[in-house]
Amino acid sequence: MTEPNWHKSTYSGDNDNCIEVADDVPSIVRVRDTKDHTKGELTATPAAWSAFTRFVRSRAI
User: Fold this and answer.
1) Residue 15's pLDDT is what?
2) Cα–Cα distance for residue pair 56/15, rounded to 1 Å
3) What is the mean pLDDT of each run of 10 residues along the chain (61 residues)?
4) What SS3 state is found at 12?
């Protein structure tokens, strides 16, 4: 199995207080802490991830 293609949001800039997302597999989205990869990762379906990001964006100040 190959390593997922992790990326940070462009909104993060140089800040390491964020998450990384790997969405290179069509059926799963992986999420992990940028600073500490040993904490593991969360997984979600693409539909659940889209719903979550829509919710977060709707609450953004």
Assistant:
1) 66
2) 19
3) 82 74 92 90 95 89 65
4) helix
Q: Rounded to an integer, what distance in angstroms lies between the CA atom of residue 56 and that of residue 5? A: 23
SS3 content of the chain, % helix, strand, coil (to 5): 35, 30, 35
Beta-strand pair 28-33/19-25? antiparallel
Cβ distance 51 to 44 under 8 Å? no
Q: How far apart are CA 32 and CA 12, in angstroms?
A: 14
Helix (H) or strand (E) holding 21: strand 19-25
d(CA 5, CA 8): 10
Amino acid at 33: D
